[in-house]
Amino acid sequence: MTATISELMTRTGVKFGTSGARGLATQLTDLVAYSYTKGFLQYLRECGDLPATAREVAFGGDFRPSTDRIMNAAMKAAEDLGYAAINCGKVPSPALALLGLEKGIPAVMVTGSHIPFDRNGIKFNKCAGEVLKEDEAGITRQVVELPDGLFDANGGFASAAIPSRPVATAAVEAYVARYLNFFPKDCLKGLKLGVYQHSAVARDVMVQILSGLGADVTPLGRSETFIPVDTEAIRPEDVALAAQWSKEHAFDSIVSADGDSDRPLISDEHGRWIRGDVAGVLCAKFLGADSVSTPVSCNGAVDLSGWFGEVKRTKIGSPFVVSSMLDASKRGKTCVVGYEANGGFLLNSPVSRDGRTLRQLPTRDAAIVHIGLLLLARREGKTLAQLVATLPPRYTASGLLKNCPVEKSAAILERFTTGDDAKDHAQLVAAFGLLVGGSGVQAVNRTDGVRVTFANGEIIHLRPSGNAPEFRCYTEASGETRTQELNDAAMAKVAEMAG
After folding, report:
1. What is the DSSP letter of 435?
2. Mean pLDDT confidence for 389-418
3. How far apart are CA 316 and CA 295, in angstroms?
4. 8-38 pLDDT tens trace
5. From 69, 177, 298, 459, which residue has the greatest number of CB atoms within 10 Å?
C-alpha cells in the first residue's frame, strides 16, 4: 500500500505553513505523521541532501498532549527507512536544529509552536538547516510505502505498543554549552531576572543558561498544562503578569519564550514586553550585523536607525528570511542575521570575539535575544527601557482574529486586490480612511498580504496566518498609544468584514 503526500495534504488539511506542516492533532494521525516524515527523508535522498553515509535522524518535541504520539510515528518512519532515531525528548527547536547541524543529519521537531493546544505540527530541518519553500514541492510529490497492517482504519497504529527509545541529552547539553562557552563567565552577574516558564519547552534551559552566565534567576508561572503563548500577539494576562512580577521582585528583566522556545519574550525593567521586531533590531546591533533580513511586517525602525549596511525585506516566515540570508552570505556579507516580528532571531554567520566563536544557527532562536539585549544594555550603560528609547520612534502592534476560515481571509484580501490600483486605493480608504484621519493611500505593498502606507505615515497590514485559520492585522505609527488604538480599530473592521 502506498500514499501520496499531496493527496494526504488535500484530504487531511495538514499542509505546509510558514513553519512546517501543521493542522489539528486529530488530523495529524499516526499515518499522516509517518508518511510526511518518510516523504521528507525520501526527498532528501532524492535531491542529494542526505549522504549515503548518514545513519541517524534527530527527533524532538514540545509539551503538547499529542506530541509523544506524533513523535513516535515520525521516529518509526525513519527506522523503517533504515535510520537510527535519536530521541532527544522534549527539547527547544533551536537546540534540536543545532544538533542536526553539528552532526550533519536531518532533525525533525514535533511542535505547533504558539498555536492552540488542540493543534500540532512537524518542522523539518535538512542536514544544513531549515526546509525552504522550494523544498516543499519536492516533499509534497513523494509517494511513500505504508507497510501492510501497520495502521488501522482511522490512521492510528494497529498496535498501541511504543518502542522503548532512551532519551538522548546531547541536544540540550550542546545548546547550553553554545552560550556558556562563548559569552564571558559572569557576564550577567548583578542582574536580577525572572523566567516566565509556563509550558515553554526551554523553561529549565533558560534558567540554566542565564544563571550559568551569573544572573540571579527566579522561575515564575510554571504550568503543567499547555499554554499557547504567542510572542507576536501577547495575551492580556501575560501583560498583567509581567507587570505584577516586576513590581513585586524589582527585576531588571523578565524573559520567556513560546511553546517550542524559538521565539523570545523579554521585558524591560518595568515588566513591559518588548516587541519582537524591536528586540530583533537591538540584537542585530549587539552582534554588529552588516546585513539584516526581516519580513515586510516588521518595525520600520530598522530602516531608519542607520546601524546596518543593508536591510532586506521578505515575505513572512523563517524560510523566506533564511533564503534572503543565504543570498547575503553569497554576496560576501560577513555578519548576516535575520529576525521576525515574533522575535525569533537567526544567525547565518559565525561571530568571533576574544578568541571564541559562536557558530551560525540559521533558524529561529530565543536565547541569543535574551542575552544580546541584556549585554547591549550593560555595554551602553542603560536599562532596557532606555535602550529601546534609542531607536527611532516607530511603534508596531498586532492583532489576531481567531477562527477565521481560509475562505473568509481570502475574501477580505480580495476587496483590495482587484488589479486596479485606483479601485483598490478607494476601497482601502473606504474601509480604513476614517481610522487614519481621512488620510489617502501613499503606497501598497503586496509582498505578503496587503500592507498599506497612508499619507500620514501610518501603516495597516492585513495578512492571513500561514499556520492556522486566523487573520492577523499589523499596524505601525509614531506613537505607542496611537499604534495600539489603530490596531484595535483595524481589528474591529477586520472582524466586521469576516462577518
Report:
1. G
2. 92
3. 5
4. 999 999 998 766 899 999 999 999 999 999 9
5. 298
Distances (CA, A) of 116 to 113, 227, 258, 260, 385: 9, 8, 12, 13, 31
Domain topology for 395-498: TATA-Binding Protein (3.30.310)
What residues are annotated to the active site?
A: 113
Q: Could you give the 3-state DSSP secondary structure of residue 426?
A: helix
E strand or H helix that includes residue 60? strand 56-61
Gap between the Cα atoms of 338 and 294, Å rounded: 6
Residue of 306, 282, 486 lying closest to 384 (CA atoms): 282
Q: Write b or e for each residue in 76-96: b if 16 or more Cβ atoms lie within 10 A of its Cβ, otherwise e.
A: bbbebbebebbbbbbbbbbbb
The grid coordinates of residue 48 equal 542529494
Q: Which residues contact 331 (CB under 8 A, 6 or more apart)?
A: none
Mean pLDDT of the chain: 95
Mean pLDDT, residues 108-118: 90
Q: Which residue, chain included where needed, has cell 513553519?
A: 19
The total of other beta-carbon atoms located within 10 Å of residue 225's CB is 9
191-388 folds as Alpha-D-Glucose-1,6-Bisphosphate; Chain A, domain 3 (3.40.120)
pLDDT number for residue 85: 97
Q: How confident is the model at residue 466 (pLDDT cuts 50, 70, 90)?
A: low
Summarised one tens digit per residue, pLDDT across range 123-166 is 999 999 999 989 999 999 999 999 999 999 999 999 876 778 99
Q: What is the spatial distance between Cα 356 and Cα 2, in angstroms, rounded to a whole number?
A: 50
SS3 229: coil
Cα distance between residue 442 and residue 453, in whole Å:
6
